[in-house]
Design a protein that fits this description.
This protein has 270 residues and is α/β, with parallel strands linked by helices. Helices cover 40% and strands 20% of the residues.
Length: 270
Amino acid sequence: MTTILTENGSKFFSRFDQDSSFFPLDSRLLPKLCPQDIAIISGCPGSGKTELLYHWIAKCILPASLCNGLDQRVILFDNDLRFDLFRFIKILERRLRCSQATNGISANASKNSLFIDERLKLLDIFKCSDFDEFVCSLRYLEVTRPKKYVLMVDGITSFYWSTKMRNPFGSSMTQDCVSVMTSLLRNVSRSCGMPVLLTRRKLDSSTDNDRTKLPVAWRNLVTKQLELVCSGITEKSTDVIVKDVTSGVRFQCGITSSGWKICILDTANS
């Protein structure tokens, strides 16, 4: 006997709206990413956190018509001062040439250069020298409320120790600083209507998850968490294991001269 499932109009549109509300940044690493999600990518130095941001920024600022992009503005806070614009442009160039070859479009160096210049106008980079400057910049975004954008912060805890060292009131004042920062990030996320992506250096490389060492305000802020571990280096690529902390799912990824490689589900460790 065949069973037919039915649903009324309200249920259909409710399901449709729910599915379409997801932000299609990365269906593998960040499935069902909602506009107000705050995701953090943690890992030891050299694990590929900034490279993953290159990959996502390119996805955001490139157009859907040519490179399957999102045509979306990005605001990046380069707190770790690791963002290499020359490297990022090379990734864009290779991605553009690959898309042109796939679609049978002849490459033109001058036109490609103009195209990339136009795409880079969708990327704003802030470089803050200390925690106070970072907070002031977040307050500016909170007040001005520019057009929709994806906010990324490379090195969300970069100013932790410098703030702690110059703080005469000890840990209580440091906790207050963290609370101010988390409150601003939450407000900015709500006002821009887009997800916020953060990177953070792991506090302890000997543990799988050091989330419990972070302040409560910070733990309550984060809705998705990925951990990156460098699993090997060859002449052509750096191999990286990406773990979804919540689900435990792992992906085998790689970093090459062309950027972040396609992720493959690590079934042996999932």
